[in-house]
Fold:
Amino acid sequence: MSNAAPRTSGSKARWRSWARDIDQAGHSSRVSAHLAAWAPIHGVVAVYLAMGGEIDLADLIGLDRCRIVVPRAEPDDSLTLHDFVEDELVLHRYGFLEPPETSVPVDIDVVDVVLVPGLAFDLRGNRLGRGGGMYDRLLADLPAGVVRVGVTTEDAVVDALPVDRHDEPVDWIVTEAGIRSVSRDLSDSTLTVVEAAAERGIAAAMVRFPEGTKTSQDAARAVGAPLGSIAKTLVFLVDDRPVLVICSGDHRVDEAKLAAAFGAKAAAPAPLERVRAATGYVAGGTPAVGHPGPLPVVADVSLARYRWVWSAGGTPDTVYPVSLARLVAASGARWVDVSERG
Structure:
């Protein structure tokens, strides 16, 4: 490094001047390797096309498990996403390649992951961009469950950056040293869920509400989501065998249907001590993944209305947004019809 980082109170202009001296491009292969090995990189992944000095993620373009989309800067300085077609790329006046004007945009609701360049990031996920605000506008428009990963180097990760009201943070940061969650005052239980989820392909961006989200109604109000999109996780004893049920927040589990789904005689809500013994977590915060041992899991068809849902984060005051398809796959749930509205 040729100069020391500015004070936190320093202007963004001073921070940009400092950050431009950092060599990011030289770490491209290691950063790309970390991302390629990370289970949450799947589905539709937005990969930026690097400018000079940025980490180049070209090695990710050929990943078989991904559909790669890339950004295009529109005349109003917004970003749209388009399928990557190498032979059709054109050069933008700022010096990066992008899809042509004739390219058809991809609906952002189908995107699973967005990889975000930055001159620097801080430990809370705040990003220092080049000043145009294009990525801030894109991130603000994304559904809550889309995984936001900031791409940088260790030298450009600092304790704190100056932040403006319009700035949009990321939830994960990748550098040559690896990938880490931007943990925002999370408990050990919730961090355990984050780690377990990542191993199963979910990058859980935890949202914490100190006042608690013990009920589906509490969670829906807290995150501003439809009640039905709260994927509540409940433990039932089915002929005394613990079973985890993932059900829509505006439905209730029909115990007779649940028993029938397992060919059992009876089903009933598990006592609090049995919930803890079976899952390792307290009722009201039971996660869909990260249990200490095998546990039968079913997902009620009431949830199938939604592309994105909110799932418990291991404590009564944490939830996270996630693709329903990914939640079902990661939890090993099978689809059943075991609920009724109400």
Summary: Helices lie at 12-19, 28-36, 134-141, 188-199, 216-223, 255-261, 272-279, 324-331.
